[in-house]
Every structure is written in C-alpha cells, then in structure tokens.
Amino acid sequence: MIAITSACIEIRLAVRRTLSCRLQPAAAIVLAFLSTSCTLTRMPIENERQLLRDASITIHEIKAFERELGIEPTESLARTSTQRAPSSMLWLWLQRAGTVALHSPIDVRLAIGFSSVKEEVPFEQVYKVDGYSAYYRQGNEFADARSVTTVSFAREAAARRVAVVIHEDLHGDRNFDLPWEIEESLITPLGSLAAVEFFKRKSDLANLQIAQALVDEELQLSRELNQLVAAAEQIFRSEDIDSAKEKIVALIPSFPTYHRHFERQTRGQHPGTVVEAKLSHDLAYFRYFDRIVSLYESMGDLKALIRNLRGMPKETPSQGVTDYLVALERRDAVAAR
What we know:
single chain; three-stranded antiparallel sheet; disordered N terminus; two-stranded antiparallel ribbon; 11 helices
C-alpha cells in the first residue's frame, strides 16, 4: 500500500513571462487527486532490480552513441530509481477557446513537479478553465537530472526507450536552447531519426524495423495534423466557438493516424475541452516533422543535420522556423548538384 500525502508534492510553474497576465484563468483549475491509498501489482524485487540494471546498461550505450552524433549527453534518465528517488511531472497547456497556436506560441504552459512517480499521483481531470481549452499529460521522463529510469520505463519497448532518452538529452542547453515550441519541433524528429541510426549501428534488424515504422507513423501523423489544423482554422473563423469545437472533434476521425494519437493521449479527458490545446500542443511537436525527415533523407547525414539545426538563432520567431528550413533545403539542393 502506498499512501500519498501533501508532503511528497513539489510544485514548479513554468509559464512564458509574456503571458503572465493571462494566468488568472488558470486559477480556476481544480486539481483533483485521489489521495486515498492504492494497491500496485509489483514484480518480485530482485526481478525489478535486474530489469533496471539491464536498462541502465542500454541507456549508457545510448548516451555513448549520442556523442557520435555530436549530441552532449545529460543526466536525464542516467540513474535508476534504485539509485535516486524518482520524480514525475504534470504538464498543462492552455489555449484560448476558438484559437489554435499556429502563428504564435501556445498561450499558457505549466509544468508541475512531484516527488513521486506518476503512478503514485493519479490525476483525475481539469474541470474548467473559463475562456480556455486545457490539455494535460503526466510523465516520469523529462529533461532534468531528477528524471530517473523507473521500472515502468524499463519495461517499455526498446525503440521507444532509445527515442525518449535521446529526445530528453537533445533538450540539454548545450544541444538546443530555443523557445519551447521551436525546440520541440526540431528535436522530436531528430530523436526518432537517431533511434533508427542507433539500431543500424547495433545491426539490430528487429528493432530497426520498429523504429523505422514509428518514424513512418509520425510522418503520417504530421501531415494529417497540419491538414486538420488548416481545416480547424477555417472552421473557427466561420462558426461560433461551441459549434466549431463540435465540428472539429467530429472531423478528427477523418485523419486515422492522428485520430489514434489523439484518442490515446486524451483518454479520460473531454474532447471538447482539450481540442484547441491538444492541437496546439501537437503542432509544437510535429509541425515540421516531415520537412526535417525530408532534409535527413536528402542529406543522408544525421550528425550534419543536427549541427545545421543547432545553428538556428535563439531569437528566431515561430514564423522564422519555416524560413530557416527552406534555406537549409536550398543549400542542400545546391550542394547536391
């Protein structure tokens, strides 16, 4: 039995300074936690320890591989939950009702830290934020030394573990130090591509096929998301907000790959509440996925691509990312002649 008390909770808020005046609606969020004790089905302790030892060996292999790509490893996920007490995060994204963060950053982004794994801090739901759409996600893996390898992460499929470790390390300031939505849009495809390269180097054909299939799926997700967001913008311009939300939610199943992603990540959340925030969140991760994969395929050199993308100026505005990618595409086309 594991009892959850307020003493084990640490709260950190990470919100864009320019949006501090918009934080008042966030006060309307009711965070409902199930504070009753819960029973967890557990593996034998020794089996867990061996699982974590094996995962630790793999993660150190991944971090050594990162250096071959010019990535500076970080302390994120470098230790296991037997070596350091685990932490978890609750992320919330708020987007003004009737809008999608296509031409500017998402309106409000919050990160709340807990000194327990997510499985021990069950979150019920966001009840209401007046004037805003709200989407939340919990996770034990994040870009900080307090994020350790847990038993649940060690049980994940190898392809996902490799992509996650590299993704979180790419967040390190010595790798990328850009505004959140721009940084995510670059490192999400880079992490997935690096997982493919990792299994190529290991001659692990089975996991290579899985990693490549994941890239292909994310490519299709990116294309469908961009089409859906374009349609959503038109609907929001022509309909009242409530009607627009209903039409957009009804439209999502027309994009089957994105629909599966949306359903999986919003399970337990109300579609009409999350739709603007979820679309805006996903744009930050997948907006440029297909363009970056295309650059990788034309260059054939992931290390060079990472180096080129790292050269993006820190002050680049959201709309400037496309210009930067176009310049790289043109430079690559000239070099190929």
